[in-house]
Amino acid sequence: MTTRATIEQILELARWAPSGDNVQSHRFQIVAPDHMVVHARDTSADTVYDLDGHPSQLAFGALLETIAIAASGHGLRAEAARRPLDPADPTLLLFDVRFAAAPGLAADPLIGCIETRSVQRRPLSSRPLSAPQKAALAAALQGRYTVRWLEGFGQRLAAARLMYNNARLRLTMPEAYEVHHRIIDWEHRLSPDRVPAQALGVDAATLVLMKWAMVSWRRLARVNALMGTWAPRLQMDFLPGLACAAHFVLEAAAPAESIDDYVAAGRAVQRFWLTAELLDLRLQPELTPLIFSRYVCERRRFTRVEALYGLAAGLERQAAALLFAGPGHPVFMGRLGAGKAAPARSVRKPLAQLLIP
Q: Do 98 and 78 touch, CB atoms closer than 8 A?
């Protein structure tokens, strides 16, 4: 029999699901012993990387999959259904999650990886993935998505260049600065609600300069004008882009268009990521090329700096040649490889802060 205490135990584990910039814009409402509601609000109002809400929807899908995996440890199935949008508040998604006993259901083998899964932004081993590793990662997608590998020095170099060039857009856009200023935690190695500065992947000297420069957009813009952005881009994007086993693109058979398409993709992403963790592989998402390519194709306004639209158009052409060359439709991109777990990482808010009374 499901009880409130059981649901709280499930959520104690599920709260470790990935959340963009660790903002955790979701809340949990337990309404019955076998029924809860996830209140999930996208960050489109204040985050340039989420203007259409799709990155948030990927995260909400990952959260729902994590709830289902955690529930399996109690012999329960978790079925989620999204309520219709409220036109008065389209940024809020509500998911009813109902738990039912499933005799004979074994605990999902991924359950032990939920809490240890994290982002590793630093260089990883370039040792190629083995055939069994690739097979396990492909199987994690359960036939609903396919994975296209960008491996070998040439393809890793092409992906590294793409990330390096995208970082120029990211680091010279005032709207992106506003996000970075808000979400970087300069004080804590383990941050409950932001991203630790020590996890960004730059050396100590660059980190000191970044902290000083990011006091204000005006100061950062002056530093960019005098010194350029090559140093952080080299450390955060180009070198890690080369130093990995492979980059990967998760593809759907048809373009993701609806909220439910992105939520479903997020569920697959979480299984893929947890499987990588089970295989002792580290992973870093690389979503910006997909996000800004989509903005360019949809002619979406994303910055007040007109010159950046030309840069974004060039990046879209570069991304199209590398990422959209396969038969499927990309929904997620990242890099992975063997390596140590990140010593500095985002953790999570206590469950009590995420529960709606």
A: yes
Residue reference for tokens 């599920």: 14
Tell me the two tokens of residue 2: 């499901």
CA 118 to chain centre: 10
Could you please report the per-residue DSSP string of 273-332?
HHHHHHTTEEEEE--HHHHHHHHHHTT----S-THHHHHHHHHHHHHHHHHS-SSSEEEE
Beta carbons within 10 angstroms of residue 304's beta carbon: 9
The conformational region for residue 337 under phi > 0 = left, psi -120 to 50 = alpha, else beta, is left
Q: Give the per-residue pLDDT at 336.
A: 98
Owner of token pair 């409950």: 192
Up-side HSE of residue 235: CA atoms within 13 Å toward CB?
A: 14
Alpha helices in the chain (DSSP H): 4-14, 54-72, 131-139, 152-171, 174-183, 204-213, 217-227, 230-233, 239-242, 259-278, 288-297, 307-323, 351-354
Q: What is the mean pLDDT of the chain?
A: 97
d(CA 209, CA 319): 30
Average pLDDT over residues 280-307: 98
pLDDT at 293: 97
Which pLDDT tens digit goes with each residue over 89-116? Answer: 999 999 999 999 999 999 999 999 999 9
User: Mean per-residue pLDDT for 214-241?
Assistant: 96
- At residue 1 the predicted structure's pLDDT band, cuts being 50, 70 and 90, is confident
What is the DSSP secondary structure assignment for residue 119, as one 8-state letter? B
Q: How many angstroms separate the CA atoms of 269 and 141, rounded?
A: 8
Segment 182-201, tens digit of pLDDT: 999 999 999 999 999 999 99
> Does residue 323 contact residue 239 with C-beta atoms inside 8 Å?
no
Token pair for 354: 């995420």
Cβ–Cβ under 8 Å, residues 200 and 214: no
